[in-house]
Amino acid sequence: GIQVEQSPPDLILQEGANSTLRCNFSDSVNNLQWFHQNPWGQLINLFYIPSGTKQNGRLSATTVATERYSLLYISSSQTTDSGVYFCALGSYTGTASKLTFGTGTRLQVTL
Amino acid sequence: DAGVIQSPRHEVTEMGQEVTLRCKPISGHDYLFWYRQTMMRGLELLIYFNNNVPIDDSGMPEDRFSAKMPNASFSTLKIQPSEPRDSAVYFCASDGAAASPLHFGSGTRLTVT
What we know:
By secondary structure, chain A is an all-beta fold. Chain A has strands at residues 4-7, 10-14, 19-25, 29-37, 43-48, 52-56, 59-64, 69-74, 83-91, 100-101, 105-110.
């Protein structure tokens, strides 16, 4: 099946710092999404981004499908950004709606 | 929209008992998914439905697990009999079409003692 690798596995930042999270994948995609799981366990959809670049406030994401990676940028981080960030994707060889999740990047933002 | 609604939020039961988890998807969404999250295995897709029809149940771990979607606004995931290794957070999610943003419910934390 499709392989999804996220890096780094853990990240500690001071409030105000910027960061880049990476997602590498093993197959062509037509569906790639980023999620944030907050400390209370809620999974929030951040981006649906099978290709190109999108921005939402302090967050932005870029997917380069031909090179099989996606990046999530967090600028001016805040303590509320803490949690786990997941990349999830579906490939052309399967069913677009069936997502495989990476193991996540655990982010802790400190004061 | 109220989002995806799951109940109960927490469930504690004894081994051997039947457990039923419930989900109401976002109105108008054609796809409904059941995921399970554990520390060891991360987020795993158990089953998904399209227009109330089960499409792929290859992630359902055993015959003890079953899922139904009797109508567009309601789905259940049943475990019978439950075992301690079924302890996990079970999420329901929905989206409006193939390859569109997926929205999760708040999850049900199941503990089987």
